[in-house]
Amino acid sequence: MANISINKILITGANGQLGRDLIHVLTTRGHEVIGTDLQENYSGSEKIKYACLDITNYENVKSVFENYKPDRVIHCAAWTAVDAAEDEANKKIVWSVNALGTENIARVCNALDIVMTYISTDYVFHGNGSEPWKPEDEGYEPLNYYGLSKLEGEHAIRRNLKKFFIVRIAWAFGAHGNNFVKIMLNLAKKNNIIRVVNDQIGTPTYTPDLAVLLADMNETENYGVYHATNEGGYISWYDYACEIFKQAGLNEIKILPVTTAEYGLSKAKRPFNSRLDKSKLTRCGFKLLPDWRDALRRYLQANAD
């Protein structure tokens, strides 16, 4: 489908890992970007319009969207602390942000005829078996509260909108937030032996690469549900850790593969099968993300101490 001209794109979670990468890509392409977040100011280097936004407050969402009149909204804001989401004290705010906040945005987008993009997760699935999950699969049964709240966000979009993108990702990493690569490198500063699970299988998603895809999508009307992670095959967290230390030149670190049961430190259950089928991207004219090893190389080069 031919590209279309977009004047204004509003980003929620502008100060987050994906939000900042998206703003860089979109401003580089010449789009007018409005960044929104709970913080008073945008912390990135790009000069953009910025507004404080509490997505859990419907009237606040309505007011900001009516004021800026975006053509499209890319909704990156979310509660992503998976283990903390299991705490009873946090469940109300997790639901308010991931489920009700997403519904607030979807309702306003519907009223103002704005196209919405929602960043979802492999955690909406139960994670059994070994077959890659397809975008149209509906055997959800999320294993944890985070996944349940993100799935409800998907349902809210479907209830309210016809023009939307839902993009499920997994194992995100980028420069502007905490991620597995940073965790491994920090552990290596204090430990010569590191235990990493080897029975959870998926593929990393590098947020600068994802930002390019999301920008591509939002220059089309090819709406729908998609899966997007980097290419390079399906791996375990153990395989990922081995490649991190190899590329970082930390050959003295010994990595011990353990099962999820042996590791036993997580409050939230994790899916064993996070394989996502991304073939719909090419069928619909979008470029697949680069190999995750290449993405890791670029990340390490860009974030060298």
Given the structure, what is the number of helices?
10
Classify the secondary structure makeup into a structural class: alpha/beta
Indicate the proportion of strand residues: 15-25%
Distance between the termini: 43 Å
Global shape? globular
Low-confidence stretches: none
SSE topology string? EHEEHEHEHEEHEEEHEEEHEHHEH
Whole-angstrom Rg? 19 Å
Largest sheet: 7 strands, parallel
**Sheet with most strands: strand arrangement:** 3-2-1-4-5-6-11
Number of strands: 15
Question: Would you kindly provide a written description of the structure presented here, covering whatever features stand out?
Answer:
The chain has helices at 17-28, 58-68, 88-112, 145-160, 180-188, 207-217, 237-247, 260-263, 279-283, 292-302; strands at residues 8-12, 32-37, 49-52, 72-75, 115-121, 164-169, 172-173, 193-197, 201-202, 205-206, 224-227, 230-231, 235-236, 254-258, 289-291. It contains 10 helices and 15 strands. The mean pLDDT is 94. It is α/β, with parallel strands linked by helices and 305 residues long. The radius of gyration is 19 Å and the shape is globular. Helices cover 38% and strands 19% of the residues. The strands form 5 sheets. The chain has a 7-stranded parallel β-sheet, with helices on both faces. A two-stranded parallel ribbon has the order 7-10.
Write a concise synopsis of the structure shown.
This protein has 305 residues and is an alpha/beta fold. Helices cover 38% and strands 19% of the residues. It has ten helices and 15 strands.
Short descriptors:
two-stranded parallel sheet, 15 strands, seven-stranded parallel β-sheet, 38% helix, 305 residues, 10 helices
